[in-house]
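Continued from yesterday's entry.
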Amino acid sequence: MDPTPLSDSDYHSMASGVLATVEATVDRLLQDDVIDIDSQRTGGLLELQFPAGSKIVINTQPPLHELWLAARAGGYHFKYVDGAWRERGGREFFEVLSQTASEQAGKQLRFPIP
C-alpha cells in the first residue's frame, strides 16, 4: 500500500479539510444533542474531550505527510492512499475515528455525519 505522492500545499489543504470535517461533525453532534464533546483546535492539532474525561487527539504531521490519531485504544498513523487517509491495516481515517469515538462515548457515533 504505497502512499499517493502529495505536494506540501496539497497535504496542508487536505489535512485541514479533515480537521474541519471533524469539527463540523462535532458541532452537529452538539446541535442535535447527541453528545457533549468539547473540541479545541490549535493549528494542526485537534483535541476531542468526551463527557467521561477521555480524549482523542488528531494531529497533522507535515514533514511526513501523515495524520495521527491518538485514542484510548491506541495510536494510528494515516497516509493518503488512493483517495483516502488509510492506516497500515488499510482502514480509513473516519472509520477508525468513528470506532474509537464510539468506544470512548459509550454510544454509536459516526464521523462525518452523512
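--- second protein ---
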Amino acid sequence: MPEEPEVVQVTDRNGVKLVRILTSAILREGEVEALGQGLLSLAEVPGQRVVLSFLGVQHLTSLVLGKLIHVHKRLAESGGELRLADIDPHIFEVFAITHLDRLFRIFEREDEAIASFAAKPEA
C-alpha cells in the first residue's frame, strides 16, 4: 500500500507555528488523519500558538471540521490557540452554516492571523 503524501508543512513565524496544507483537497481518511495528527502534535506544547492556512484548498470532507474542533479544544486545554486563514469562500460557507465561524478566529490572510497574536486584547 503506498504511503500517504505529506499533507501539512509546519514552519515557525515570530513564535507562531504556521501550518500550511499541501493539497487542494482533503477528502481521504488518510489525509484527514495526517492533518489531525500534525495539528495535535503541536497541542502537546503548552501555550502553542497555531495558524492553519487553507491557501489553495478547494475541497474538504466534513471529517476535517471534526478534527479542527478537537485540535481547537486540545490547544485551549494546554493554554494555546488555533487561528484559521486563507479559507476559500465556498469552504467558508460551510464554517458559517455550521456556526464554526463563531468558534474559530478566521482571518483573510495568514499574515493577519500571525499578527493577531501580537495584538493587544481590547479592554
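The chain has a mean pLDDT of 92. Strands lie at 8-13, 16-21, 25-26, 49-53, 59-60, 81-85, 105-107. Will compare against the first tomorrow.
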